[in-house]
Amino acid sequence: MKIVTIANNKGGVGKTTITYNLADQLAHRGFKVLCVDADPQANLSSYFGFDVNDDKLDTLFCSIVEHKKAVLHKFNENIDIIIGDQRLINLSKIIAEDPNYNLSPATIFNEILSPLSLKYDICLIDTKPSIDISVQNAFAASNFVLIPITSGEMSFNGFLTVIDTIKYVKRINPNLKILGAVANMYNPRTLSSQELLSEFKGNEDLLFESKIRITEAVRFAENNKMFFRLQKRNYDLKIDFNKFVDEFELKTNLKK
Length: 256
Fold this sequence. Notes:
Blueprint (H helix, E strand, L loop, with lengths): L1 E5 L8 H14 L4 E5 L5 H5 L12 H8 L5 E4 L2 E4 L8 H7 L10 H6 L8 E5 L6 H9 L2 E6 L3 H17 L7 E7 L7 H8 L17 H8 L11 H18 L4
Parallel strand pairs: 1-5, 1-6, 2-4, 2-5, 6-7
Antiparallel strand pairs: 3-4
């Protein structure tokens, strides 16, 4: 199982939307996909149709603190998810104060995910828009980090913060690699999008060749904080995303 964390230190770059649609497209291609919602907002879990306010549902927090193993929820034949919830905000504090907790705080996710390595082809971890113990844990368990970026200085600064964190976590996980940055909500006609790409001059290998263009449907969803799912009528966007998934498969050497 390849493990890819989707991260940026800035919100609003489309991490969760990319995670959902990437999982959906890979599942349609026949891959077995595990999604992990490591964001306390649990938007990815909501996108998959789970009620994150249902106290009866076991979540990632329950998996880590109570069960010490992953509790899986099935979405369809090819996608399972470990659900997120608000209690992840207090994860580091709870672990630090629990004398009976015997897992290293830096390798919690690895302990949870490693028993599943033969069950899935790919694991996608959606993270919160900041660097904390849950994000560092995700990096420590991962093979790759995918960094969605949008136009704007803060998005690129968030990218740089992720790069610095990867360098730090490589002391724990020396096999961790930067999969690359993918330009999301990209508009080649705007100066801001052109400036974003110019930031990678000399480091083009860190940038996906494929770019995901902005459309009216995406703009409406983002402005109204709504979930966006690729559909047949989103023809241009589906072309972009399929090219991105093709490149994702190639970069991760993903095979069934």
